[in-house]
Amino acid sequence: MTCLDLSCDVVSLTAALVDIESVSHDERGIADAVEQVLQPLPHLDLVRDGHTLVARTDLGRDERVVIAGHLDTVPVNANLPSRLDDEHLHGLGSCDMKGGVAVGLLLAAGLPEPNRDVTYVFYECEEVAAADNGLGRLARTRPELLAADFAILMEPSNAAVEAGCQGTMRVDVVVRGERAHSARAWMGVNAIHAAAPVLERLVAYEPRQPVIDGLTYREGMNAIAIEGGVAGNVLPDACRVGVNYRFAPDRSLEEAFAHLAELFDGFDLELRDQAPGALPGLDRPAAAAFVEAVGGEVRPKFGWTDVSQFSALGVPAVNFGPGDPSLAHTQAERVPVGHLRHCEQRMRRWLA
Amino acid sequence: MTCLDLSCDVVSLTAALVDIESVSHDERGIADAVEQVLQPLPHLDLVRDGHTLVARTDLGRDERVVIAGHLDTVPVNANLPSRLDDEHLHGLGSCDMKGGVAVGLLLAAGLPEPNRDVTYVFYECEEVAAADNGLGRLARTRPELLAADFAILMEPSNAAVEAGCQGTMRVDVVVRGERAHSARAWMGVNAIHAAAPVLERLVAYEPRQPVIDGLTYREGMNAIAIEGGVAGNVLPDACRVGVNYRFAPDRSLEEAFAHLAELFDGFDLELRDQAPGALPGLDRPAAAAFVEAVGGEVRPKFGWTDVSQFSALGVPAVNFGPGDPSLAHTQAERVPVGHLRHCEQRMRRWLA
User: Fold this and answer.
1) Contact call for A242 and B229, based on CB within 8 A
2) For residues B111 and A145, what is the distance between their CA atoms, to the nearest angstrom?
3) pTM of the prediction?
4) Does residue A246 surpass a pLDDT of 90?
5) Strand pairing category for A317-319 and A64-70
6) A72 catalytic, yes or no?
7) Pairing assessment for the beta strands B299-300 and B238-247 based on DSSP bridges
8) Which of B195, B224, B228 lies at the smallest CB-CB distance from A182?
9) CB 3.0 to 4.6 Å from A183: which of B233, B290, B298, B302, for a disulfide?
10) Which among A198, A199, A330 is the top mutation candidate for probing chain B, defined by the most B β-carbons within 10 Å of its own β-carbon?
């Protein structure tokens, strides 16, 4: 087993974490390594649940915060082991999100008496189906371990605070027709032609840009799939348009579906999957204090992240972590050394 | 081997032919049976090429006509053996087109001195790829066997003359975009949305209905397939719309493609397949005489058939055969007994 050294700097620790391969469903090694370095620390109560670790201070502070990051990565793509150059640490998981995990581990080890009680969560299976997500399992089975006034998910956010997250819903718009030989088209109804209004409504759609807690969220309504066709000489009797709606966190799942039903009035909708958004919660004192301490511009989060799991537990949460999220899941994944140092320093200042 | 009896009536002979299973590429048995009954006839020169048979009178008449039908069927679909009720003979191939073959065989045997020289063609592999088509092979390798003033293809046409055939062309209209995360759609270009004008042009399209030799052909322009999509959270960078153009025989393949290029101006076209139409040729004396002899209303043929193979050889050709073409390739395939008798009688009258 790789031994981690929590006395080294954040760049070296991130490199060591990257070099422990931990593709989703294969997190035993990295969870063992993290458990090994947290176990001896007397100021932390450590709980292991599968390959998910929860380490809590218990100092009786007025406020408790969660600092969380996932241990897994997407599949290896010829991007291991890690490699350091002047400005970046390269390698699978460097950005998404072992840099954030390294910051969390250094805080856990280096701050025995933080000014707020802290619950550190290092969890498994974020990159795969929601049913396997270690944070989700804790929320279902041991929600008391996640109780807090505020949560920070250290997903890459360019070392700036990204508040809340948008919800996502995917539906199939189903268009019906009637088969006929394509040489006698007047005998049938072409379902692909009948899908023209679906595309026209998508093209004409003007996404909302609601302002919530001072942040402007940009919604999105996009076809992400289309299929239809029986044979080269047959008018198709069905066409299916997959639509992904990304909606600001002032809308519930029910409201989002009602909006889709109204937009595609006259067509059948089939719900494929959905995940609610999370309100930024910047009006809560703990959140406001965090934003003030770490500084910088607060941005809205357009993608969906696990902050919504905290939101569902009534805990306001933000994303704050090193790395450019647009590099996540790419072969060229990397994290700026400056981001790693900045995040560690700001978090340490906030908790010291 | 099944022995055919050319002294029985057209209904019994059709039933006997249906009961010789002859799915495409498995025509040996039926070709052997046909060869066995034609071989002894002294007034016919018989040539076998694979499982394709050509039987010719050589009486030195001023005019020569072709009477042709294919021996193969689409796959068995729980519709064998044949079954006769009061009005119909049921079974695979009864309609497409062993009824027509039975008529041809009875004429070949029963008219030793027709008033025109006749070339009977019974061929293999019509229901599969054009490259395997027995008639096409003869046209390429022994076109002299098909030389004639006029040809009758005994494909089902409700026992009426269907003249010429429309051409068919299939293209993919390719629409490009640029990938982006669907939560940040403004970073990309959605290729499915960009396909909206393709569908709009298809919906707005008004097919031509040109009149040729007094027959009105109805063209058709239809999407027969559409596909696009990368993943549920990704803006697609490509969308492909398969379009089938059925065009009247006054247009060449080149003209048909130019028409598609004009209609879908601004998009890339990829040609998938094509087959030319065939002019009705009703202005030729041999064709006019046939139409007068068999009587009834002449209709245009909207689907594509092997008459275009004769057209390509400079031989005007029509479809004339028993059975409703809309039942071809269906499990419930059947042929009206009245059609069988009508076609045999009219053809016999024309040639006697």
Assistant:
1) yes
2) 97
3) 0.81
4) yes
5) unpaired
6) yes
7) unpaired
8) B224
9) B302
10) A199
